[in-house]
Design goal:
The protein has helices at about 45-50, 95-110, 115-120, 125-130, 155-165, 170-185; strands at about 5-15, 15-25, 25-30, 30-40, 55-65, 80-95, 135-150. By secondary structure, it is of the alpha+beta class.
């Protein structure tokens, strides 16, 4: 989740599901997991969270197309390998300047620490105006669901073929799948039993 903090926040509304793509801070506190972020005030998502606090946040990790040419037998079809985390929880929204600043002071060091100095140098009136254009939210996670499809059902040889082909990709989203597979002890060069995930 921390490695892939640009998540998809999903809420149920009277009109149907509503989603927002948003960077999040992941915080552990007193045996609980908290997700913190903000949306533009013009985005109605914060209103949906106020009406229905229960929500789902999806953190999508590495993923890649898997060619059947990686398999030993001819009769096979393509598939997709991936890693993702589904975080279910309850949200609260806030617009008090001190709470909004708290979220910003967590996000800035994550993505551009050097911007902190520029933010601090902006006029008070400008910062206040910018804070007036956002609404913060905090989600207390009630359950986590890991999703890993990493060729667990294939032979060690086929897993190795997949890992080799993915490792050659210049796209880190694709080559990252090979890393996930190695982390799960898949392939010929790994030790230990294959771990099963859905």
């Amino acid at each position: 989740m921390r490695a892939n903090p640009f998540a998809i926040l999903i809420s149920s509304t009277a009109e149907g599901p509503f989603a927002t793509h948003v960077p999040l801070v992941i915080r552990e506190a007193e045996n609980s997991l908290i997700l913190r972020g903000h949306v533009a005030k013009a985005n109605p998502h914060w209103q949906y969270l106020e009406r229905e606090p229960r929500c789902l946040t999806i953190f999508h990790g590495a993923h890649a197309y898997i060619s059947p040419t990686n398999y030993v037998t001819h009769e096979n079809v393509p598939t997709w390998n991936y890693g993702a985390m589904h975080a279910y929880g309850n949200a609260r929204t806030f617009s008090a300047p001190d709470e909004l600043l708290g979220v910003l002071h967590e996000l800035i060091p994550m993505f551009e620490p050097s911007y902190g100095e520029q933010w601090a140098s902006l006029s008070d009136s400008y910062r206040e105006r910018m804070l007036g254009h956002i609404v913060g939210f905090e989600i207390t996670v009630t359950s986590l669901e890991a999703k890993f499809k990493l060729s667990q059902n294939r032979t060690r040889e086929e897993q190795q073929n997949v890992m080799v082909s993915l490792s050659e990709a210049k796209d880190t989203v694709v080559s990252g799948v090979a890393e996930l597979m190695r982390d799960q002890n898949l392939g010929l060069n790994s030790s230990g039993p294959n771990k099963k995930h859905s």
